Amino acid sequence: MNDKAMFIRPLVERALQPLPLRTLRPTGWLRNQLRLQAEGLSGHLDEFWPDIADSQWIGGTADGWERGPYWLDGVLPLAFLLDDERLKGKARHWIDYILSHQHHDGWLGPIEAPHFGSIETRLDPWPTFILLKAMAQWQEATGDVRIVPAMQRALHRIDALLDEKPLYEWAKMRWPDLALSIQWLHERTGEAWLLDLARKVQAQGYDWQAHCANFRYREKQPQWMLENHVVNHAMALKEPAIRFRLSGNQGERVNAARFIETLDTYHGQATGIFTGDESLAGKNPSQGTELCAVVEYMFSLEMLLAAFGEVAFADRLECIAFNALPATFKPDMWAHQYDQQANQVICRISEERIYTNNTADANIFGVAPNFGCCTANMHQGWPKFAAHLWMRGPGEAVTALAYAPCTVVFEVKGRPVRIDVRTNYPFEETIECVVLVEGGHAHFPLRLRIPGWTKGAEVTVGKDAAQAAEAGTFYVIEREWHGSTTVRLHLPMPVTIRTGYNSAVSVVRGPLIYVLKIGEDWRQVRGELPHADWEVYPTSPWNYALQIDRDHPEKSIAFALSSVGDCPFSPQGAPVRANVQGRRVPMWTVARNAAAPPPPSPVASDEPLEDLTLIPYGCTNLRVTELPSLGPAPTMRLQA
Q: Which of 62, 394, 413, 532 is least enclosed by beta carbons within 10 angstroms?
């Protein structure tokens, strides 16, 4: 060992350890959702979309930049979570080709990869960042002995390249994704040069910590820049987790929370995401958010959870996963939007539009509306969420971070343990975890996340009396587990009101946002079935103000639960509905192909009082999330 290696600070342990892909199996509605994805665009894109089907990454002539690795990074975990041999075969084809065509100097993938807006197309390291993440997942799922040596060679080549040509453009902004894979490899080889490389990457990368401390992008941005790009911000949110592992600075968890708070303050939406139609776009609920930002924000939160183990990060992850993620897909997952809007009352091709950068078709549902990056990158959202529902740690503990039906299998001191999670959460308040130790016993702590939004949560172990659980903490059950034990978690979901743009109201209950249901008329405008492009037009009024008690909203809203079917994230399949009353506000209309900003609340209207239906945001394609409220002493009077 050389002298320099002896003084390298070791990689700091994470609070929690993500589980390998084969550890968890989705069940119930979550499995159905992943199956929809496998049978939709994700599982078939490589059969007809040239940028994947004819990718340069597998010897073709189409895109040789980020799109192939993006698709692989999402389809690969989808394949193993579903144990789908067809999808695993597709992933293997890509992995085999890429590994067998690694260049003699270690470079992975195309040497020349022209792409939109770049000043440099030769040996661009950015797409390799994505590929390395996919390769790490493949190794964990299969134990493929080729992966570690291939990654070592590739990173040696990148190390040398960075001495000649420091990080630039996308790679400079997205350096945490490369550092993540470097850290993964270091955990398996212990080689000190990898930590040197990680620090070199950080030094050459964009300083997101300083960016947040001196945040300049506080309004809707009129011009695109890498520094105000929405997806760059979503990816950068994992930076504190990367820095923490290199430095051990506990202040990084504060930096992570501050970064999230900053984006909420200036660009936040009810769904937990922030706006950005390419550039950060302010708080208007009609402005829109790019799908790539949704799935990348989720992955950043998953990395923050592993590093710091904070309940608040899991609360945010569930909010985005159960609301913003499903709402940006056609329910059968054969089409997606580039931009989704919180107040989304029409989806059509229109040259007159509210977006800063995006084009006329940015909010229609299709194969590749506006630009193909989301078509390639959207696949990671559901699979990586499923893969991070549970993690190991601290110590021998196993920790539930987010809730959905699944089975988790792991070992405690060589003893196999299985946990079956039986639930219709987030549509219901109860979660059952059946802990099974076959043929013996095992001692370990079971840690259950108690969301920050709940009140009066209780945990019941077997036939014992229910115990109160404090919101915003992990409830720990440390015991000797024998045979089969049922742990029942009850998470009451109080109704709250979020105040938004122009004092508009959003209805929140537990992890779900409830929005005005709008009738839909789907019109095919391009392509061929099943992978066609669609406009969606409203068939019912949407411009309402709610009659609601902001301080006691439960007095104004009645919730009704129905069964959870095969496609719960759809208007027809919504398992929960809320009944509320409101009046039309005729002067609130469409402007620039979007709902105009909600008029300042409270408002008055001479229209008749009507019964209205709200359903979960993730079940909608058209919706109004932020609505004005009616008031007894209106400051603004609107009438026909």
A: 413
Contact 297, 273 (CB under 8 A): yes
Q: What percent of the chain has pLDDT over 90?
A: 94
What is d(CA 431, CA 434) in angstroms, rounded to the nearest whole number? 10
Question: In this structure, what token pair is assigned to residue 389?
Answer: 């529902």
The one-letter amino acid at 196: D
Find the Cα–Cα–Cα–Cα dihedral 399, 480, 455, 617, rounded to 10°.
Answer: 40
Report the phi/psi class of residue 413: left, alpha or beta, with left for phi > 0 and alpha for psi in -120 to 50.
Answer: left
Radius of gyration of the chain (CA): 24
The answer to whether the beta carbons of residues 497 and 548 sit under 8 Å apart is: yes
- pLDDT tens digits for range 559-610: 999 999 999 999 999 999 999 999 999 999 999 999 999 999 999 999 999 9
- Residues β-bridged to residue 475: 448
Q: Of the ranges 48-62, 204-218, 288-302, 626-640, which one carries the lowest mean pLDDT score?
A: 626-640
CB 475 within 8 A of CB 450: yes
CA distances, 457 to each of 401, 431, 488, 551 (Å): 16, 11, 11, 22
Interatomic CA distance for residues 322 and 426, integer angstroms: 8
- With CA atoms as reference, report the closest residue to 375 among 363, 364, 367: 367
pLDDT number for residue 10: 86
Coil, helix or strand at residue 405: coil
Report yes or no: 278 and 356 within 8 Å, Cβ to Cβ: yes
pLDDT at residue 2 greater than cutoff 80: no
Write the DSSP string, 557-621.
Answer: -EEEE----S--SSTTT-SEEEEEEEEE-TT--EETTEEPPPPPSSEE--SPPEEEEEEEGGG-S
Statement: residue 400 has pLDDT above 80: yes
246 touches 196 (CB < 8 A): no
| Over residues 58-83, mean pLDDT | 97
3-state secondary structure of 298: helix
Residue 543 burial (C-beta neighbours within 10 Å; 0-12, 13-18, 19+): buried
> At 602, phi and psi to the nearest 5?
-85, 155
DSSP states of 415-447 as a string? EEEEEEEEE-TTSSSEEEEEEEEEEEEEEEEEE
Query: Which of the four pLDDT bands, split at 50, 70 and 90, describes residue 4?
Result: very low
Question: Rounded to whole angstroms, how far apart are CA atoms 493 and 173?
Answer: 39
How far is 453 from 316, CA to CA, in rounded Å? 11
For residue 454, what are its two tokens? 């709940």
How far is Cα 106 from Cα 153, in angstroms, rounded to an integer?
5
For tokens 């009609």, the residue is 286
**Separation of alpha carbons 263 and 64, rounded Å:** 33
Per the document, the length of the chain is 640
What is the SS3 assignment for 192-238? HHHHHHHHHHHHHCCCHHHHHHCCCCCCCCCCCCHHHEHHHHHHHCC
Judge whether 544 and 608 are in contact, CB under 8 Å.
Answer: no
Average pLDDT, the chain: 95
Q: Are 204 and 162 in contact (CB under 8 A)?
A: yes
Contact present, 396 and 412 (Cβ < 8 Å): yes
Give the tokens for residue 91. 């992933």
Joined together, the tokens standing for residue 247 give 């430095």
pLDDT in tens, 432-445: 999 999 888 999 99
**Nearest to residue 538, comparing CAs of 362, 366, 363, 347?**
347
